[in-house]
Structure to design on (1022 residues):
């Protein structure tokens, strides 16, 4: 399993001012792999990149690069390059000289530098910007210069700290494709940090979900989405209803006053568990034909589907359906075994998955509607 | 409201710049006065460049400012980067506060403490001259560093910490990364820090005053020491030039930094500001280089000397410590005495100035500096002898001693003429304006005449102030009887309401411009004032007055005794003594001068008047108890009069 591993982080821990920032990180990255770190702000993504880049010494643990421990190798000698979260472009140099910086340091001859720089600027859509000063560029343009600068020296491993954060949606989509193409063409290992789960799901070979300095789950995008390890991951990736349940026996789980068939096994009899049901996996039917039933407390038209908040035994579910339902309607819900995912109880149990009020994350996404459910709850 | 604002702003600027414009105006004055404009001329500018003395002080000041600014900038930059890179926030805070304290410290505290440190270390390693150019340079570097750090710190904070990491990431070792990335981004801070250090060093007086040695004198020190006489107008010329140079420098720095800020928008426009800034910088640099390399060396000696002088001590250094403006220095087509001596003997003269006997005493007493020649006044000589601070003179090596008037031999402070040789003599009399005062006064009592209320000037120091009252009362100036001092104090208090002001060298301005009618001062200075204002007259009061003698001595810390004797003998040379007498305008104790037909003041009734008419008294060095007593009385007089 561990063939062509290029970077191996072993038991990495870091504390700042006595506060644990990274807690025993273990992770290996294969050559030419596209790995994405995903996690809420402050969870330690940048810190992990800094350790790989050589800008920070961990308090304990090892960084293995190509089979060798590189903890004592200074940053400028590591075959790793970084696109910094805040670009870190050199303000006293113009665009050309910024991109050429690494090449000049490597004593590449002038004609070669010119050619490479122009190719890179072309790649990031900044042809003709060579003579511009950094301060005259927009945020997105600066970000693209940073990408060009790092790619110019053809690193083996590229660390990208939210490299597309400042771009508008259209440009971001384009650059996602560009980056992915470059990664495959140039055969560079990408270690990518993002907040954007969609970006993570669509670009990555492997996703690393982090929270509070700990890795919560490592897996392919499909694994992460379909088989979240705990409530945090389930909530962080996509929308999830996370309901308290009891595993009656293998393949049978009881929740919301009903016993469901499922595909999970291996739990103790009557073990308390978290049950994940994705909003789009719930069938909306007439109340009398449903396995469970509840009352719609909020309904928002989202174009392709309606997003309903449904009160089922005082637990608010999110349900996505193409059927038109109004606030106040009583509906029945069916869930097939394939759509039920059982997780062991964890420190995150009970924190996520209830839509009685929108989570912070939800508010962020949809600020306008944020207070509607709160109002409706007031009425109930 | 707007108009009010404008007027207010205009007034503020007027107050800020008026003094400078007045000074510039008077730098073009034909005459010497600072209150009467006698016509436009470049006389003082010409003087400035033809007398080596002022230019030497300027050069010293520039050398000091450039060296200290350069070194402080390097050290300050390294320190700032070090502090900025510190991990511990607490330590950073402490260091920055520690850095701020010296800037808020009064200069005098910094100066005195540095001096103490230098003297302590100097003693420890057994130096006779603990204070020197080096200590002055160290002091300037010391007080400049915090300002450099202060200028660089914000730039460092603005600099993205990730820049260094980015450079390292692209393959630069940390040191290269610093030079390639950090240095360019903080360069404007470094530049403004360096300029600030340069200007601070340029005009520092207080710290220099305490830490300077005998081998070096800066412009501010020189100007300050001129208080015995008045400040010479070539200083106005110099100050005006310096003001303009600094103004240009400031404008240039501002233009550059403005240009920097606006770069993105104006990339394609012609960088006119840069060109102007460049031209200004070039002017500044050229003038500094000119000042540094200026050498007025078209000097040819045609003097015939009485004694013979050998080159035996050529290459040695002689440290002369004298009052400001107390030697003929080549200005006004006079003789440059020190330069003449250097040519004649090959000995290098380090000439520095003090402004009072007490300042000279303090410097000498600190044991941190050694001088070869000092010129104290009578009572101070008595004190120095008492404290074993003078060396006996080998008169056999001073051939010209026979030129000293017998009257000035065996004076009370040096009865056997072992330690001192008279240099100048002066008497206090009363100067009055004939257009304002009736008749021909002859008594100290005119200073108590209510008719002239508001137009009478009095000395602004205790000993001289008391002297006027003591003379009127017919007392012994050196009385140790407290009742005498009480009586004199009483009289002075009576006088307070009718006084125009208590002043020292402002007397020149006030009397020359007719702002005051009556003032006690030295006869020699009266002659200077009368040149400007012919309405002035002078008399010696019949009750008697104070006489002083300033004499040349060799302190016990002397390093170059033989050269010092040679210098004393040289000062007594007829031609040299004549030049000094003409320049200083005080009476000379040298008979070759007094009898010289070429002496413009020969037989001058004011300087050399009939000595028998009035009793004259020297100041003696009084005991501490008496001194404390009259000082306390004096303080009370000042307090009650205001
Ligand atoms: N130099 C430092 N000193 C003290 N605390 C630090 C330092 N650097 C980072 N931290 C802390 O470590 C934690 C993790 O920071 P990190 O930058 O790795 O987060 P992140 O996951 O990259 O967040 P974001 O998505 O907002 O960039 C944060 O709580 C941060 O405040
Ligand atoms: Mg980050």
């Amino acid at each position: 399993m561990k063939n062509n591993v290029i970077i191996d982080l072993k038991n990495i821990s870091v504390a700042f001012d006595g506060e644990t920032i990274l807690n025993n990180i273990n992770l290996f990255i294969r050559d030419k792999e596209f790995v994405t770190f995903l996690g809420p702000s402050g969870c330690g993504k940048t810190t992990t990149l800094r350790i790989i880049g050589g800008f920070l010494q961990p308090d304990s643990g090892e960084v293995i690069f190509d089979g060798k421990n590189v903890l004592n190798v200074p940053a400028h000698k590591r075959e790793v390059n970084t696109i910094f979260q805040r670009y870190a472009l050199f303000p006293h140099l113009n665009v050309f000289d910024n991109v050429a910086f690494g090449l000049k340091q490597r004593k590449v001859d002038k004609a070669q530098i010119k050619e490479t720089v122009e190719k890179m600027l072309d790649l990031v859509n900044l042809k003709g910007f060579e003579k511009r000063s950094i301060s005259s560029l927009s945020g997105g343009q600066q970000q693209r210069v940073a990408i060009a600068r790092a790619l110019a020296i053809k690193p083996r491993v590229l660390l990208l700290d939210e490299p597309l954060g400042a771009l508008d949606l259209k440009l971001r989509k384009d650059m996602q494709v560009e980056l992915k193409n470059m990664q495959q063409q140039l055969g560079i290992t990408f270690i990518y940090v993002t907040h954007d789960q969609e970006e993570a799901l669509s670009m990555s070979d492997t996703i690393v979900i982090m929270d509070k300095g700990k890795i919560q789950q490592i897996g392919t995008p499909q694994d992460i989405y379909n088989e979240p390890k705990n409530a945090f991951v389930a909530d962080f990736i996509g929308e999830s209803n996370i309901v308290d349940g009891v595993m009656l026996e293998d393949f049978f789980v009881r929740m919301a006053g009903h016993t469901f068939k499922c595909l999970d096994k291996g739990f103790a009899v009557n073990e308390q568990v978290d049950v994940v049901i994705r909003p789009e996996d719930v069938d909306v039917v007439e109340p009398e034909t449903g396995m469970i039933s509840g009352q719609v407390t909020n309904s928002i038209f989202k174009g392709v589907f309606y997003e309903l908040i449904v009160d089922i035994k005082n637990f608010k579910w999110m349900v996505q359906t193409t059927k038109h339902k109004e606030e106040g309607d009583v509906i029945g819900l069916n869930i097939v075994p394939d759509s039920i995912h059982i997780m062991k109880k964890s420190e995150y149990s009970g924190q996520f998955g209830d839509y009685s009020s929108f989570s912070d994350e939800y508010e962020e996404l949809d600020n306008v509607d944020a207070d509607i459910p709160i109002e409706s709850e007031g009425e109930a | 409201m707007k108009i009010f604002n404008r007027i207010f702003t205009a007034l503020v600027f007027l107050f800020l710049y008026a003094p400078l414009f007045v000074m510039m105006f008077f730098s073009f004055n034909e005459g010497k006065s600072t209150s009467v404009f006698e016509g436009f001329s470049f006389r003082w500018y010409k003087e400035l460049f033809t007398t080596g003395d002022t230019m030497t002080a300027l050069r010293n000041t520039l050398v000091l400012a450039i060296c200290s600014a350069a070194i402080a900038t390097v050290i300050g930059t390294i320190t700032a980067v070090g502090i900025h890179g510190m991990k511990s926030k607490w330590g950073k805070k402490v260091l920055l506060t520690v850095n701020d304290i010296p800037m808020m410290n009064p200069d005098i505290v910094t100066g005195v403490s540095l001096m103490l440190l230098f003297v302590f270390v100097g003693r420890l390693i057994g130096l006779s001259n603990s204070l020197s150019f080096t200590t002055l340079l160290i002091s300037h570097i010391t007080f400049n560093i915090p300002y450099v750090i202060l200028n660089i710190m914000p730039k460092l904070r603005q600099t993205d910490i990730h820049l260094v990491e980015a450079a390292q990431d692209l393959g630069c070792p940390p040191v290269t990364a610093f030079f390639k990335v950090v240095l360019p981004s903080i360069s404007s801070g470094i530049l403004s820090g360096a300029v600030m250090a340069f200007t601070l060093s340029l005009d520092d007086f207080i710290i220099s005053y305490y830490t300077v040695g005998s081998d070096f004198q800066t412009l501010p020190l020189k100007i300050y020491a001129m208080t015995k006489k008045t400040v010479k107008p070539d200083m106005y010329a110099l100050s005006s030039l310096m003001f303009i140079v600094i103004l240009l420098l400031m404008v240039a720095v501002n233009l550059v930094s403005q240009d920097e800020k606006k770069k993105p928008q104006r990339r394609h426009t012609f960088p006119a500001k840069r060109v102007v800034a460049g031209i200004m910088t070039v002017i500044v640099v050229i003038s500094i280089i000119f000042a540094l390399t200026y050498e007025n060396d078209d000097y040819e000696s045609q003097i015939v000397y009485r004694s013979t002088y050998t080159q035996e001590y050529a290459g040695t250094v002689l440290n002369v410590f004298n009052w400001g403006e107390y030697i003929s220095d080549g200005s006004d087509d006079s003789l440059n005495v020190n330069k003449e001596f250097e040519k004649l003997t090959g000995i290098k003269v380090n000439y520095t100035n003090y402004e009072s006997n007490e300042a000279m005493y303090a410097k000498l007493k600190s044991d941190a500096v050694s001088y070869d020649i000092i010129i104290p006044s009578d009572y101070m000589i008595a004190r120095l002898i008492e404290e074993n601070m003078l060396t006996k003179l080998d008169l056999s090596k001073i051939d010209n001693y026979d030129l000293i008037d017998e009257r000035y031999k065996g004076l009370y402070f040096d009865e056997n003429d072992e330690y001192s040789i008279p240099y100048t003599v002066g008497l206090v009399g009363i100067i009055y304006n004939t257009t304002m005062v009736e008749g021909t006064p002859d008594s100290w009592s005119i200073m108590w005449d209510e008719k002239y209320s508001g137009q009478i000037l009095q000395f602004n120091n205790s000993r001289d102030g008391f002297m006027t009252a003591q003379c009127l009362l017919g007392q012994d100036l050196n009385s140790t009887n407290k009742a005498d001092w009480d009586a004199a104090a009483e009289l002075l208090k009576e006088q307070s309401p009718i006084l125009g002001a208590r002043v020292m060298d402002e007397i020149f301005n006030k009397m020359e411009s007719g702002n005051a009618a009556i003032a006690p001062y030295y006869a020699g200075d009266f002659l200077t004032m009368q040149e400007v204002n012919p309405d002035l007259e002078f008399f010696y009061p019949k009750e008697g007055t104070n006489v002083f003698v300033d004499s040349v001595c060799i302190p016990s810390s002397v390093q170059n005794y033989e050269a010092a004797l040679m210098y004393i003998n040289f000062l007594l040379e007829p031609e040299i003594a004549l030049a000094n007498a003409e320049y200083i305008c005080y009476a000379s104790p040298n008979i070759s001068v007094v009898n010289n037909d070429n002496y413009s003041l020969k037989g001058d009734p004011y300087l050399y008047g009939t000595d028998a008419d009035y009793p004259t008294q020297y100041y003696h060095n009084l005991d501490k108890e008496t001194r404390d007593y009259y000082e306390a009385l004096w303080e009370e007089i000042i307090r009650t009069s205001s």
Residues 264-269 of chain B have pLDDT under 50 and may be disordered. Chain B has three domains: 55-293, 317-419+554-594, 426-548+611-641. The pocket of adenosine-5'-triphosphate (ligand 1) is lined by residues A 16-17, 21, 39, 41-47, 85 (CB under 6 Å).
